[in-house]
Amino acid sequence: MLNASLEQQTRGRRTILAPMRFSLPCGRLTAVLGPNGAGKSTLLQALSRGKAAGAQILDGRRQLGPRDICYLPQAFAVVSELSVLDCVILGQRERLGLRVPQQAVTQARSLLDRLGLGDLATRAMSALSGGQQQRVLLAQRLFRGGRVMALDEPTSALDLHHQLAVLGYLRDFAERTGTAVVLSLHDLNLAARFCTHALLLAEGRLICEETPERALNAPAIRRFWKVAPEWLRDSENNAVFVPHMLTHR
Ligand SMILES: Nc1ncnc2c1ncn2[C@@H]1O[C@H](COP(=O)(O)OP(=O)(O)OP(=O)(O)O)[C@@H](O)[C@H]1O
């Protein structure tokens, strides 16, 4: 278990995130949840900037440094003519420099295969769709690796098949490597299905640190997302919720 803390985050004179402490379980997915403007991106960005942003992550007594943390920002639009394979290999540029051994190329290709991108390995990044680019950028971060992966809405551009495939892959990756993966998600059902831990943010504050099911209780959903949840059961008996507009009588 890693222990994280963040000092207050400000932009100009505005405080956008209050100080907070939370834990990040190793080998698991932690969901950062909250409505628009809650502070999810600010939290992930601060974690990735570390000391410069007043953030610290401790593994016991050891403080993790920038090399231990791998960050995927929310906004992306790659106009580069770089090939997909080269883009993934760039993930290890600090370690490899200009010498790229065949083993690294093989690893990068295998990662592309596992993310369903093998056929696109030689294609230019600029010639990919938004969802394909997002998966390549995720592959690049996975190729780089780190004790913590901070991913800002890594499934925002993905279709339903790829949302499930990517989150399933991330869950296996975390378990296999012991990485603490912390990711923001707007789909609360996906968060409940794939994440074991959740940080619920609202109005720049950490409301609770809980399992997703407990964090996403009906009063919290009404209060912070301003929708009424209807609970159903799927074929595997998992609770799934359907949001309805709140009616004001
Ligand atoms: N440069 C800035 N200057 C002033 N306020 C900012 C700035 N950047 C972000 N904010 C504000 O900080 C708050 C948190 O923003 P943040 O992007 O972290 O929210 P979020 O939870 O990731 O939202 P979303 O779900 O819409 O991506 C918002 O109210 C936003 O308007």
Blueprint of the fold:
Layout: E1 2-6, E2 9-11, E3 14-17, E4 20-24, E5 29-33, H1 40-49, E6 55-59, E7 62-63, E8 69-72, H2 84-89, H3 93-96, H4 102-114, H5 130-144, E9 148-152, H6 160-177, E10 180-184, H7 188-194, E11 197-202, E12 205-210, H8 212-215, H9 218-225, E13 227-233, E14 239-245
Parallel strand pairs: 5-10, 5-11, 8-9, 9-10
Antiparallel strand pairs: 1-4, 1-6, 2-3, 6-7, 11-12, 13-14
This protein binds adenosine-5'-triphosphate.
Describe the structure.
- The chain has 249 residues and is α/β, with parallel strands linked by helices.
- It folds into 2 domains: 2-216, P-loop containing nucleotide triphosphate hydrolases (Rossmann fold); 217-249, no CATH class.
- The protein has helices spanning 40-49, 84-89, 93-96, 102-114, 130-144, 160-177, 188-194, 212-215, 218-225, and strands spanning 2-6, 9-11, 14-17, 20-24, 29-33, 55-59, 62-63, 69-72, 148-152, 180-184, 197-202, 205-210, 227-233, 239-245.
- 35% of the residues are buried.
- The model has no long low-confidence stretch (mean pLDDT 94).
- Adenosine-5'-triphosphate binds at residues 11, 14, 16, 34, 36-42.
- Residues 1-228 form the ABC transporter domain.
